[in-house]
Specification:
single chain, 381 residues, alpha+beta, Diaminopimelate Epimerase, Chain A, domain 1, 20-stranded mixed sheet, 3-stranded antiparallel sheet, 6 helices, globular
């Protein structure tokens, strides 16, 4: 199926053949003529109405004909203007089956900070969150139980879309892999070279690199973090049974992260923290890292957020580059490669660089790849 926005025009690209495009401010209007299925074999392109000014959802599916003669036709589902309502049945009070409309919430699953499926950090992106209330957003994030789940909404000024980010237990103002993953999901059909996503910590631009029509890499400009000594440093080191070769400091950029520098990558890999004790000690993400030069290994624990260990933490990668540069382990502007997630079977690779001098930070960038691996829907009565 192909989802498009119909207001006398449609927004789509990537897996569909298109004619004509008009770019005005942050809207891309493209006229659809035919659909061509490529890539993983998914027969749909999800394009959120939130990316376009105005518009109503229209649901289409491909005619089951040979590829050479495929046409696009409307589905039998009912369009509501905000989400698709599928036809369902229930047993009435008289024992007869009654038809009813069931709101359908569609999502895309991407593996982030990896270039291959079934690795990296999982992310669910609900591409139209306009009719989803806060409690349902949190319940859906808990149901999926990924590190984070995203809901796409209409943007404010200066952004293509607004995203809300939920862990299984709470909403976050900002997180790295949800921003990067959302950029891959939303910018692919729009054929954007840069997408600006509004978060609770401000608008985050993501510059995208392509191999042909496929997005292969993205660099996000993160909020500049603030930092301070971590007040419970001694208790944390005692709980982990380690010593830190750098000051144990707490960084704020929406979420908070504390950093502990260990002596070797083997020491990082051997960590086996008491998650209950860690959750009682701090609500910050605890990042334990080691390495040298441009290659570093890290593990991040955030049990209070419902994430005992995170496969890849984009919001921690930027502050790690800042931390290393401030303490002379790398140069400002130097790009580092960060490995994470191997211990939980989700190997991930992140890239980060911090620009500035001394304690003045001018810009922080975090990059990586992502792949779309699944699409699904919830039908909630």
């Amino acid at each position: 199926m192909v989802e498009v926005v119909a207001v006398g025009a449609a927004v789509v690209a990537g897996r569909v053949a298109v004619v004509g495009a008009v770019v005005a401010d942050f809207a891309v209007v493209v006229v659809v003529v035919a659909a061509v299925v490529v890539g993983f074999g998914f027969a749909d392109v999800v394009v959120p109405a939130a990316v376009v000014d105005g518009g109503a959802w229209v649901d289409f599916e491909e005619d089951p004909q040979p590829a050479a003669s495929r046409a696009i036709r409307p589905r039998s589902a009912v369009t509501t203007g905000r989400c698709t309502a599928a036809q369902g049945t229930r047993v009435g009070t008289d024992g007869r089956l009654e038809s009813r409309q069931v709101p359908t919430l569609r999502y895309v699953v991407a593996d982030v900070f990896t270039d291959r499926p079934l690795a990296g950090n999982q992310l669910a992106v609900f591409t139209d969150g306009r009719d989803v209330d806060d409690a349902t957003m949190q319940a859906l994030a808990r149901e999926l139980n990924f590190s984070e789940t995203v809901f796409v909404l209409p943007p404010g000024e200066g952004a293509h879309a607004r995203i809300r980010i939920f862990t299984p237990t709470m909403e976050l103002p900002f997180a790295g892999h949800p921003v990067l993953g959302s950029a891959f999901v939303l910018a692919a059909p729009l054929q954007l070279g840069e997408i600006r996503l509004e978060t609770g910590s401000g608008v985050v631009p993501v510059v995208l690199e392509r191999e042909g029509a496929r997005i292969s890499f993205g660099w996000m400009s993160q909020p500049i973090p603030r930092w301070e000594p971590f007040a419970a440093a001694e208790d944390l080191l005692s709980l982990l049974g380690v010593e830190s070769s750098l000051p144990v400091e707490l960084y704020h950029l929406g979420p908070t992260h504390v950093y502990v520098a260990l002596g070797s990558e083997d020491e990082v890999a051997a960590l086996d923290p008491d998650f209950g004790a860690l959750a009682r000690l701090t609500d910050a993400g605890v990042n334990c890292f080691a390495g040298s030069g441009t290659r570093w290994k890290t593990r991040m624990f955030a049990p209070v957020h419902g994430v005992p260990e995170d496969p890849a933490t984009g919001s921690a990668a930027g502050p790690l580059a800042v931390h290393l540069a401030r303490h002379g382990r790398i140069g400002f502007g130097e790009e580092i490669e960060i490995s994470q997630g191997a211990e939980i079977g989700r190997p991930s690779t992140l890239y980060a660089r911090a620009f500035g001098e001394g304690d003045r930070i001018d810009r922080v960038e975090v990059g990586g790849s992502a792949v779309v691996v699944a699409r699904g829907e919830f039908r909630l009565p």
